[in-house]
Amino acid sequence: MRPFGALEWAIALRYLRSRRREAFISVISTLSLIGIALGVATLIIVMAVMNGFRAELFNKILGVSGHVLLQPLDGPLTDYREVAKRIDAIDGVVRAIPFVEGQVLVSGPANAGGALVRGLTKEDFDRLDFVSDRLLLGSDEEFGTQKGAIIGSRLARALGVTIGDTIQLISPKGAVTPFGVTPRIDSYPVQAIFEIGMSEYDSTFIYIPLERAQLYFNQEGTVTAIEVYAEDPDDMDALRQKIIDAAERPLFIVDWRQRNQTFFSALVVERNVMFIILTLIILVAALNVVSGMTMLVKEKTRDIAILRTIGATRGSVLRVFLIVGLSIGVVGTLIGLVLGTLIALNIEAIRQGISSLLSMELFSPELYFLSRMPADMDSVETTAVVVMALLLSLLATIYPAWKAAKTDPVVSLKAE
Question: Would you give the end-to-end CA distance of the chain in angstroms?
Fold first, then answer.
């Protein structure tokens, strides 16, 4: 008899259909199938969301803050234009942007709070496409030619301002007088409002022209640092030496891995822990398959003995129960795969629907940094989840099937 022949399939399918006295076994099998499906679906969804969360944060953090930060060691960066131009010419560098940065108290008609001011030239702001391409209101055409500021959407809402309104900046590093340093106060009309989609930046950043920032923060003719954006963020070691050689002056160099090491390491640890915890769901479902199959074998002992007496081999009996167990595992895995894929691909729409239904915020941007729930399905990871579920189902089926194949027909019929 060939492996998994028509007779073996017919017997296995008959065993999968419940009858009145086997209803309890059927319930266990159904729960096992549901458990495997939910485990696979949950694992796919969580892995997709974790991948999307990391990718979104990675893109947004490095899209604004750059991959390499250069700060002066031996004196102010008065030659920042020449240094930035030489670094810009390095193969593998997308752009090098000098900037002035300082913390201020910003106030508007509705509120006041802390903010981070960055001064950039008009050319560099246009090159910072991660911000310049995400303007919700207004335009950056007059940025640098007229006095004005470009602020984040959440900061604008908090201050109660829109295009054309004026915000007031207060810096503790003001003019030096015989009586000490007095705070510097200056007003800027809002020229544009941007939204990156990361609350930390949308509620904090203010961009003003470089020359005005230099005057405001007492840094005439110099800049705070130079940010370098690379083509390959993972190839920082090779790029670091090229930057040192091109700078032609001592610089303190720190890349994105050092600046965000704790944050991204925590994401990796959390992702791995979630994978282990959710795998236990599939493992519990697989154990249910073992218990259900063991009870089925015990219930079908007389049938097995009759099959053996009419010529069925131990291999045939083994294959019958393998089909029964694997059918539960395969069907449950396929249902979980379809369900998990559909939810992962529509996770943001589902979140918005639940939020509207319950009238509550399920994914607070202030808590999770992002304004939308991301999901990024990885084909390799999804395949690994499916293979793992099928493998656990197979392992859970082997022992009961082997036990059925080892049944002695003489002993079984005597017991009957």
Answer: 28
User: What digits encode the pLDDT tens for the residues 106-131?
Assistant: 999 888 899 999 999 999 999 988 88
Question: 3-state class of 99 per DSSP?
Answer: strand
Whether 283 and 403 map to the same domain: the answer is yes
Integer CA distances (angstroms), 26 to 131, 295, 324, in order: 58, 10, 12
Mention every residue, 6+ apart, whose C-beta is less than 8 A from residue 95. Answer: 88, 124, 127, 128, 228, 229
Residues 24 and 160 occupy one common structural domain: no
- With 0-12 / 13-18 / 19 or more C-beta atoms within 10 angstroms meaning exposed / middle / buried, residue 302 is middle
- Torsion-angle region of 162 (φ positive above 0: left; ψ -120 to 50: alpha; else: beta): beta
Model pTM?
A: 0.71
- Would residue 343 count as lying in a domain? yes
pLDDT at 381: 87
d(CA 267, CA 402) in angstroms, rounded, equals 43
| Residue 141, token pair as written in the block | 């055409």
3 state SS of 115:
strand
- Domain range for 48 is 6-59+263-408
275 shares a domain with 390: yes
| The domain boundary residue, chosen from 181, 203, 229 | 229
Supply the angle between the helices 379-405 and 314-345 in degrees, to the nearest 10.
160
pLDDT tens digits for range 340-374: 999 999 988 888 888 888 777 766 665 566 667 78
382 and 320 in a single domain? The answer is yes
Residue 269 pLDDT greater than 60, yes or no: yes
Residue 163 lies in a domain: yes
Q: Of 323, 393, 322, 345, which Cα lies nearest the Cα of 35?
A: 393
CB 214 within 8 A of CB 222: yes
32 contacts: CB under 8 Å, gap ≥ 6: 285, 286, 288, 289, 292, 328, 332
